[in-house]
Design brief:
single chain
Length: 78
């Protein structure tokens, strides 16, 4: 490296870095303020206990579109 980077180039890069950091912070804070908090609903009926098993089957030859929802509640030992 026979040539050094000029001071003006370094100053411009530092200023751009600061501006991008500030803009990123503003965007993140804006997204946090727009976030919704969803409260979990506790079941009103009595709960029961059970065991769960999982079997992984071979993948089907063609992709299958599916959706699902899983809720896991870990209760303390009595």
């Amino acid at each position: 490296m026979d040539q050094d980077i000029s001071n003006k180039t370094i100053v411009v890069l530092v200023i751009l870095t600061v501006i991008i950091s500030i803009l990123g912070t503003v965007v993140v804070l804006n997204e946090i303020s727009n976030a919704r908090i969803v409260a979990l609903q506790r079941p009103t009926a009595s709960t029961s206990q059970g065991k769960v098993s999982l079997t992984i089957l071979p993948a089907p030859p063609e992709p299958v579109a599916s959706t699902g929802k899983v809720t896991l509640t870990i209760l303390p030992r009595e």
